[in-house]
Model the fold of this input.
Amino acid sequence: MSKREVPVVLITGYLGSGKTTLMQHILSQEKRKVALIVNDMGSINIDASILDQTGNKVSQVEMVEMQNGCICCTLKDEFMAEIERLAKDNTVEAIFVEASGISEPSSIAGAFVTYEESTDTRVYLKTVVSVVDVDRIDREFMNELESEDEAEDGDIINLIVDQIEFCNIMLLNKTDLLSEEKLEKVQRTLRDIQKEAQMIPCVQGQVDLGLLLDGEDFDFEEVLASSSVQQALNGCEPEDEKACVDEYGISSFVFEERAPFNREAFQHLVEDYPENLIRSKGYIWFSDDDKHVQLFEQAGRNASITELSEWMAAWPQKELDVLADEFPDIYDDWDREYGDRINQVVFIGKNYEKKDILARVTACIEK
Done:
């Protein structure tokens, strides 16, 4: 059998966005026979009569959620084994995977693409769908979080933005809850974040299967490059005097500096963050911790700093030498004093003065 015979559709979206309702609708359509993998069988509560009528299949497979300073998802052997088992059923035309509401789709998609390229599998990642609760975007992101309790959950907004950034189809769910004017405003904001993904407005996940299965195949590199953050990285040089401005009136620039941030000064910046910055994201490091890479993310008025992996410069020299023997290009961008440590942050917004933002960020650098 040739490869790329059974399409897999990854359904992402934050808790309450409408993924389960979408799954119910997909299973109720009799046009095609599909298989569905979910994290929690109890949360789906599929009507048995729907399965009997359509001949579709539902499988419960655990996707591992690893809390290690950040939220990420990895694929277990059990998960891929179940994918392969379902793909062997020649009557199954497509496999839908409902990801956890707190998963980062880029991690799942990246692992899946690696699996595709390294094995002789029949399955391929056809589409990554982000189910977006437009009512929530309007209430909490567009108008900012008004409740102090909710405002503490800045990680949630950042995760939602991550899910919007990494998809090739945006399912704009619950459009009936917004006026036409508000919906248009939300759509413009979503387009600021993700430039290329197809937008499909819907109510209660009512979407024809053909829209999810018959479009262009998912391309990891293209989707990665279509986010506002990645386009800013690709399109602007850090030393540009003016920020790059796109067709939507959104301007962006990249800040780069080898020297570390002073943690206290940077946290003060985050607490009083410029309101006209829509999105910021990048890797940074602090003077009181030269070991760990920190991920800085901001969406609207919500910002977070998350400790990630280690800088290679913090590794024992013996381990670094072994790595350099195999990958000598790690020294191509190596700094004599700081090694691979660097602050690189993309800033995206409207109606701001780049020099003012630069001044505030640069004032946090400890030299």
Q: What stands out?
A: The radius of gyration is 22 Å. Confidence is low (pLDDT under 50) at residues 40-74, 144-153, 237-244.
